[in-house]
Amino acid sequence: MAPPSSEEPAAAQAAGAGAISKVLVVIAMQTEALPLVTRFQLVEAAADESIFPKGAPWTRYHGDYKGLHIDLVWPGKDPVLGVDSVGTVSAALVTYASIQLLKPDLIINAGTAGGFKARGAGIGDVFLASDVAFHDRRIPIPVFDSYGIGARKTFETPNIVKELNFKVGKLSTGDSLDMSPHDETAILSNEATVKDMEGAAVAYVADLFSTPAIFVKAVTDIVDGEKPTAEEFLQNLISVTMALDQAVMQVVDFISGKCISDL
Ligand code: ADE
């Protein structure tokens, strides 16, 4: 094959050298997902073209944007209670199914998070997670203890960090919005700056299937602040979702025409 000519557009040159073409965005809440659906002009997969097993509330939006095929999935509403299926179980399931069925080149797990002001987080800050771990899986038996914590480095993206100026910090994941004293000890030990309910679960599944994954988290509430978490989270959800939307667009714009090794 002839080498790409220097007159070719960057995207075409990169395509010849294994450019990223399929991006999977995993998002837990509808409120977080819809601005991105609009931003990338994605369309919802119709019921008769659903790739997911019958009965799963998981929802997929898809479309093309700047040479990339984007699939955005969210775990949908709980079939009984009608609220967003937040948390690690739903996130792991939808990530697993999406990797198997869509074979993405890259996963972006985007969402909101609690931030620790003692570690430099403020409301509306956007973080790229350098590491993830769980803070509510306690198994005090040698080796099982490390398995429970599930600490891992995320896929390194030095060029995204340099270019887009996001903050970088460690992310700790658990299935509760609030923070028990046990969680607090574990989060401190994980050296986390941000805290969410999905990241480490998405990372676990992505690692199982050798799929690079990055974590973009926007801070809605200050965990070590004065305000009750749930109240502060709900108060800031809409405005911080706009910051998240902007950040994910910047990441996707950066990715367009690039190879995994360029990130
Ligand atoms: N998402 C937004 N705020 C959060 C918090 N404080 N804990 C876990 N997930 C969150």
From TrEMBL:
Coiled coil: none annotated. InterPro entries: MTAN, Nucleoside_phosphorylase_d, Nucleoside_phosphorylase_sf. It comes from the Eukaryota. One of its GO terms (biological process) is L-methionine salvage from methylthioadenosine. This is Nucleoside phosphorylase domain-containing protein. PANTHER family: 5'-METHYLTHIOADENOSINE NUCLEOSIDASE, 5'-METHYLTHIOADENOSINE/S-ADENOSYLHOMOCYSTEINE NUCLEOSIDASE 1. GO terms for molecular function: methylthioadenosine nucleosidase activity. Residues 22-251 form the Nucleoside phosphorylase domain. SUPFAM superfamilies: Purine and uridine phosphorylases. It holds the Pfam family PNP_UDP_1.
